[in-house]
Write a structure and sequence with these properties.
Elements: H1 3-14, H2 18-37, E1 42-44, E2 48-55, E3 58-61, E4 68-71, E5 74-81, H3 83-89
Antiparallel strand pairs: 1-2, 2-5, 3-4
Helix pairs in contact: 1-2
């Protein structure tokens, strides 16, 4: 599934035009990105939590040339899935009580 597929599903399920669904999804993604840039965590109940992690620069090596390099610092996004999401994707493996 890609962004276009998600937009189509939102448009159909919410019974709104495709361009409105595009705006909704883009606004949601922008809000998540902006919050992470500000150092805030984004928690969506039942779905999961997005957090920002800063990785310092570190020594590394180019595997092709064996040359030692410095890998630059950067920010990474971590995602921890929520219980509902995990239960939904693992529903077929759960034993009935």
């Amino acid at each position: 599934m890609n962004k276009g597929d998600l937009i189509t599903i939102v448009a159909e399920e919410a019974d709104i035009p495709y361009n409105h669904a595009t705006e909704v999804l883009n606004t949601l993604l922008d809000a998540i990105s902006d919050s992470l840039k500000e150092g805030k965590k984004v928690s969506i109940h039942g779905f999961g939590v997005f957090t920002l992690f800063h990785r310092e620069s570190r020594p590394g090596r180019n595997p092709k040339t064996e040359e030692m390099i410095i890998v630059p610092e950067k920010n990474l996004v971590k995602f921890k899935p929520g219980t509902e999401l995990l239960n939904n994707v693992n529903a077929e493996f759960q034993q009935p009580d």
